[in-house]
């Protein structure tokens, strides 16, 4: 297997804006953090989004958690957000067809440019694509932005955030290489990050295998795992103007209000 290993200490530059889990997961170490109060409305939105995600994962891979790693991770994430067990179980049953539903959920991708020329890729789960685009397009129109192809600036990668507990990165470095990790980064701790965290990237085709290897090894605790759009390094952009940055934040907040959206990926440096 040929790959380029990139190890960067004390710097974990992420280009991932997590809408689905505002107070957990990748939003804890994203380059741009968007925070909201944990009120009832936000919790309801989280429950709705996680339910749709679980339904789609169950539809794609079945309900056997030992085989469907993404579903298992989504359920763990939902439990950490105190989403009721009944909501989780119903979502699984809708996905597998055990519980009949008129909803036909599907994953959709939207692309465009945010303020400052930032490329974004939006992942949504919806039962009505016309409704979803009807919510998303006005977010772009409000800032005179274009919905245009941008996914070519990104690569699909499996991304894991893992806690290596009392170990050091040197202690697990070779082992992570051996199981197929392509990119290893130490996460810089702050007031929102606890534990001894590192982030790894993998080829998408190795995602399930590596997830199983990590889960079966008591040296590691998986905090987050996703298949993401990771920006190509030569496409990264910066926003240095305060007014433009303010517009970018307002634009992202508008997207945050669209419940069908699961994740937004950007190439903001």
From TrEMBL:
Q: Where is the TACO1/YebC-like N-terminal domain?
A: 27-98
Instruction: Classify the main location.
Output: mitochondrion
Which InterPro entries does UniProt cross-reference here? Integrase-like_N, TACO1_YebC-like_2nd/3rd_dom, TACO1_YebC_N, Transcrip_reg_TACO1-like, Transcrip_reg_TACO1-like_dom3, YebC-like
Q: Which Pfam families match?
A: TACO1_YebC_N (PF20772), Transcrip_reg (PF01709)
| Boundaries of every TACO1/YebC-like second and third domain copy | 105-268
The UniProt entry's GO CC annotations, sorted and at most eight, read: mitochondrion
Instruction: Return the similarity comment.
Output: Belongs to the TACO1 family.
Q: What is this protein called?
A: Transcriptional regulatory protein
